[in-house]
Amino acid sequence: MLMQMVKVNNFEANDLVCKEFGIQVHKELALVDARVLPPPMLKYHDSGRERSVCPNLGSWNMINKVFRNTLSISIRASRDDKIDQTLLDIYREFAGKNMQILGGAKCI
User: What pTM did the predictor assign?
Assistant: First the structure.
């Protein structure tokens, strides 16, 4: 598949690509002395039935795996003149559950 892409796109004859990136493209693959490393063990949250898994051929399923415990945040409504207090209450509720609000955007 890689060889087909090189042939179809004619990379070896494309001076622009070679000059822009400072590379040479050949029609044949390079031979390298290498070895295949075993996949890393994936660890999930301790609350799941399966806490770790070893990927097989680059894939694994997520059945019985837990990233983290889910938390509930109550849904609220707010009047216009109370929006600042409502947002502060939500922020405190997140902080009380050891959660962070990321992004740093300011509400106007």
Answer: 0.31
